[in-house]
Amino acid sequence: MLLALLVAGLLVLPLFANPYILSVAILALYFAFAGQAWNVMMGFCGQLSLGHSLYVGVGGYAAAALFVHFGVPPWIGVWAAVALCMAMGAAIGFLAFRFEIGGVYFALLTIAFAEFTRIGFDHFQWVGGSGGFFLPVAQRQFNDVLALRGSPAMFYYLMLAMTALALAFCAWLLQTRVGYYWQAIREDQEAAQSLGINTFRYKMLAVLISSGMTALSGVFFAFYYNNLFPEQIFNMGRSIEIILGPIIGGIGTLFGPILGAAVLAVLADGITELLAILGFEMPGIKQVFYGLCMLLAVVFLPSGIWPAAARRLGLERRDDGAPHG
Q1: Residue 294 has what pLDDT?
Q2: Model-level pTM?
């Protein structure tokens, strides 16, 4: 019943929300989707990536460049974006897993690739270089879904559908053999290997799926905001924003990334708006708030908000893919 009310509320939100609230809802759904993509890699398989902004940026630039320079619709360009990001993910995964680079060193490798790519795009004039790459802003009075040109309400429903599909896809993954293998690798890779699990193959699969999904969020980002700057989209801060939702909501759970993203987006923008109303100008307040939220979550809710809420509501399941113990 509670889930049905929530779904109904999300479906009718654009009918009653003002533009500001709608923009916050879109941002929350964006981070929920991107967080779910990261969760596949870290939450399900235990491979820590701190450079997921790489896939957001490359995916966004690929689809945007095809659209601007060649008129390729984003629904076609998205396939090139996904393929390119999966190829980059495969390269990183192969280097790391073939040479047994794990833990913090794997995280550093992902950061390095994102930073190298940022520097490269800073000098890539075909897509604007450091000056930014801009998409034509079409009229918002009518919606062109195929070209991703339209009103904020159209983007809201698109992001809502993407988030729902990502949730369903991840729930299905966790019930497959792949999902169980991932969880075994996450809990104890050596034990998983002793049981005959090809850890290299399944870790590579997690990277490919996660990078491909993250590319979709990059395409959405490009066509919603209509501009891309290397310093903005490849910045490590972008990666941190992606992973905060799952960390605060509950790494390895299905609903944790969604709940965490909603809490962060609503509270962070609410605080910013409140300070603006009171006449205070505080640059960087969101980053301070994100850090405070992470600190509180680590100290008081190390498993995240969702596992604690699920226990209180009697919704906890032992097969949801979350770490237990």
Answers
A1: 82
A2: 0.93
Is residue 13 domain-resident?
no
Residue of 307, 309, 311, 308 lying closest to 321 (CA atoms): 307
Total tally of structural domains belonging to the chain: 1
| Token output for 286 | 């969101």
Rg (C-alpha) for the chain, rounded Å, is 20
Owning domain of residue 54: 24-125+142-313
> Residue 316: what pLDDT?
63
CA nearest 193: which of 101, 325, 201, 179?
201
pLDDT of residue 322: 45
Mean pLDDT of 98-112: 94
In a domain, 5, yes or no: no
Nearest of 62, 103, 69 to residue 86 by alpha carbon: 62
Residue 42 CB partners (closer than 8 Å, separation 6+): 48, 49, 243, 246, 251
